[in-house]
Design brief:
The chain contains 16 helices and 5 strands. It is of the alpha/beta class. The structure holds adenosine-5'-triphosphate (ATP) and magnesium ion (MG).
Length: 358
């Protein structure tokens, strides 16, 4: 069986460190392992329009930003096809057919969409396209016969919805579609990295992000202003780890080598956590430690970004070639799906033969 991978991001802004730990780092590992047939990364512009219909300029601008983010973290266009969703119109067509297989009440139960409706203050004014985007996501995944989808845990309901659509489709029309499986980060802190404001999710739409493209100055002001423990007022006060964003980021990013190099009073994060809980460790000190770690992480990404910003024609061609290839694959799946649904009237003379035999 084919081993294809698909994943993607909405071009609603530049990518942030939540994207890195939640999904980009798994993509890099998969890319290095090379154990796949085809690997697709989709810039989900059509999906981004479902809640940004009045701001097409924002989506358009961010196509290149997101592509540059991919290339800057090390996604290799020789190994991965990066493509733009709206240019593959087969995806829209598949979405239309899949819509017949999903009920309104099933869509309404999707916890991620429910949460997103709340944070976007949609209430009664939810655009139909936004409400149904899990169906279009199923089209994206199945069009490429993807069996592996590297994502953060907010995407689990989408993958589950996709599996249901695949099962229903295959039961009614025959085995055409492939059931996908999510690939979640192993580190718990990376499943859903919180925002710098302590909000449960770092998200472009909430403006609480550390971007992969942040300068040292931007990074510094964000880290030094980060949410910690409101009860930890004086250095001597015992501090809390749970819900303390600085510690969650250390969980996601720090290594024992970082401690040896920059914080030798402690051998590892467990030791630092214990000391913090006892009291006597100041927030400023741990924030400076985190700043050092994040700056080391972002420095090489910034360097690569500079290269691609000066070679935009390369980025443009990577997107164009990736999109052409993606379209050729989606075309074949759409054809298979339509054949299975008996929507292939003009492929041969069978339609007339069937009619004559009646
Ligand atoms: P938007 O606010 O526009 O929805 P977003 O920041 O949620 O943007 P998406 O493009 O929706 O980003 O998500 C792309 C991928 O990144 C998904 O796989 C998602 O699970 C993952 N991801 C996004 N935010 C985080 C986060 N804070 N922690 C871990 N993974 C994340
Ligand atoms: Mg999102």
């Amino acid at each position: 069986m084919l081993k294809n991978i698909l994943t993607g991001d909405r071009p609603t802004g530049k990518l942030h460190i939540g994207h890195y730990v939640g999904s980009l780092s798994s993509r890099l590992k998969l890319q290095e392992k090379g154990d796949y047939d085809d690997f697709f990364i989709m810039i989900a512009d059509a999906q981004a329009l479902t809640d940004n219909a009045d701001n097409p300029k924002k989506i358009r601008e961010n196509i290149l930003n997101v592509a540059i983010d991919y290339l800057s973290v090390g996604i290799d266009p020789q190994k991965v096809h990066i493509f733009v969703q709206s240019e593959v119109s087969e995806l829209t067509e598949l979405t239309f057919y899949y819509s017949n297989l999903v009920t309104v009440s099933r869509l309404g139960r999707n916890p991620t969409v429910k949460q997103e409706i709340k944070t976007r203050n949609f209430e009664e004014s939810i655009p139909v396209g936004f409400f149904t985007y899990p169906i279009s996501q199923a089209a994206d995944i199945t069009a490429f016969k993807a069996s592996i989808v590297p994502v953060g845990d907010d995407q689990l309901p989408m993958i589950e919805q996709t599996r249901e659509i695949v099962r229903t489709f295959n039961r009614i029309y025959g085995e055409v579609l492939v059931e996908p499986k999510e690939l979640l980060p192993a580190n718990e802190a990376c499943l859903r990295l919180p925002g710098i404001d302590g909000n449960a999710k770092m998200s472009k739409s909430l403006g609480n992000c550390i971007y992969l493209s942040d300068s040292y100055e931007q990074l510094k002001s964000k880290v030094m202003g980060m949410y910690t423990d409101p009860l930890h007022i004086k250095v001597e006060d015992p501090g809390h780890i749970k819900g303390n964003t600085v510690f969650t980021y250390l969980d996601a990013f720090s290594t024992d080598e970082d401690f040896a190099k920059y914080y030798p009073e402690y051998r590892n994060l467990d030791e630092l956590k214990k000391a913090y809980q006892k009291g006597g460790v100041g927030d400023v000190k741990i924030k400076k430690f985190l700043l050092q770690i994040l700056d080391n992480f972002l420095s090489p990404i910034r360097e690569k970004r500079k290269y691609y910003e000066e070679h935009l024609d390369e980025v443009y061609n990577i997107l164009k070639e990736g999109t052409m290839y993606a379209e050729s694959i989606a075309k074949q799946t759409l054809k298979d799906a339509k054949n299975a649904m008996m929507l292939n009237y003009f492929d041969d003379e069978q339609l007339l033969k069937d009619f004559n035999q009646k």
